[in-house]
Structures are given as C-alpha cells and as structure tokens.
Amino acid sequence: MNTMSYKGFQARIEFDSEDEIFSGRIAGIEDTIGFHGDSVAVLKSAFQEAVDD
Length: 53
Hints:
By secondary structure, this protein is α+β, with helices and mostly antiparallel strands.
C-alpha cells in the first residue's frame, strides 16, 4: 500500500490488478471519502478534487 498527500491530507492508495485501477481513501477523517483512476495522473487529480470538495 502506498500513500499520497495533498494540503495536509493523506490518502492510502491500492492497485487492483484484476480491474487495472488505482483506488484511494482519505485517511484520518471520520467520513469515508474514496476516489479512483486508471492512471497515476487521473488518481492524483481525483484525490485533489476530493480534498477540495
């Protein structure tokens, strides 16, 4: 498992080799906020959008 950070938020990142997709969840908050992407660039953008929302 890898992590990603943005604006002080951390996310746990996993890769599903069967579906060939990256998925992440923002860590350290009460809500469950997930995001996904089929490339690192798309995943990063989805994470930043989730934090900004």
